[in-house]
Amino acid sequence: MAALWIAHVTVTDDDAYGKYAKLAGPAIAAHGGTFLARGGRFVQLEGKERPRNVVARFPSVEAAVDCYNSDAYQEALSHARDASERELMVVEITE
C-alpha cells in the first residue's frame, strides 16, 4: 500500500537547508517519491506550529523508509540537522 512521508519543519539556517532541499528531492524521487505539498499554505489547528510542511507519496512504507536510510538521503539530511527543527513520519494510506 502507498504511504505518505510527512515532515513538519522550522528552518533555522536558510542556506544550509537549501543544500538539504537540493539533495533531498532527487533522493526522494529515486525511491519513487513524489511531492504532494512543499511549503504551501496551511492552517494549524492543534499542536506545535512548523511553518514548512512537506508531504510526499511513496509506493509503500518500506520505500519511504528505504529512502530515509539511503546514502543519498542521509547526505542531504546532514545539511538539515543543524539547520532545522523537524518532525518526520511515514503513514500508510488505507484506501
TrEMBL record:
InterPro entries associated with the record: Dimeric_a/b-barrel, DUF1330
Signal peptide location: none
A Pfam family the protein falls into: DUF1330
Residue span, DUF1330 domain: 3-92
| Classification via PANTHER family | BLR0684 PROTEIN, PTHR41521
- Quote the protein name from its UniProt record: DUF1330 domain-containing protein
Q: Which organism is it from?
A: Sulfitobacter alexandrii
Q: What is the lineage of its organism?
A: Bacteria, Pseudomonadati, Pseudomonadota, Alphaproteobacteria, Rhodobacterales
